[in-house]
């Protein structure tokens, strides 16, 4: 018997029309709460200007830490990079689009003042040498201007 694989919500987005921005991909109901999946699209899909791995890795460390340190940090379910290297996924509990955008912009502001990358020692990270803090901060600044 063959198993059928269902298309997931993010595959239903038309990536030929998708642009840089901040998007709500889907809302799931779970244990009486709403889980919002957000698409932080830093680069236009299939545009041959993919994010550098070291930059992605540092943005992951920076934003994953900053959003969890802020108000409502306990409602952050997940933050991580997309394998296609054009953006990040963020899962928040009971935080709608406008609130999520505010939370994200605030986190990016916090990151601007960070001089030491969080969790970047050999003990804390699986590839601690592959980081680029300055380029990550520049990338976040550009992204903020796009979504503001
Ligand atoms: Zn790491």
Describe the structure.
With 148 residues, the protein is an alpha+beta fold. The chain has one domain: Gyrase A, domain 2. 32% of the residues lie in helices and 22% in strands. It has 3 helices and 4 strands. It has a 4-stranded antiparallel beta sheet. Helix 1 crosses helix 2 (97-112). The protein is globular and about 50 Å long. Zinc ion is lined by residues 57, 61, 125-127.
Give the strand content.
15-25%
Q: What's the N-to-C terminus distance?
A: 50 Å
**N-to-C series of helices and strands:** EEHEEHH
CATH class: Alpha Beta
Low-confidence stretches: none
What general outline do the C-alpha atoms trace? Answer: globular
- Distinct helical segment count: 3
Ligand set = zinc ion
Number of domains: 1
Strand order of the largest sheet: 1-2-4-3
The Cα radius of gyration reads 16 Å
Provide tags for this entry.
148 residues; alpha+beta; 4-stranded antiparallel sheet; 22% strand; globular; binds zinc ion
Question: What would you say about this model in short?
Answer:
The chain is an alpha+beta fold. Helix content is 32%, strand content 22%. It has helices at residues 53-69, 97-112, 133-147, and strands at residues 21-30, 33-41, 76-81, 87-93.
Topology of this protein?
Layout: E1 21-30, E2 33-41, H1 53-69, E3 76-81, E4 87-93, H2 97-112, H3 133-147
The structure holds zinc ion (ZN).
Zinc ion (ZN) is lined by residues 57, 61, 125-127.
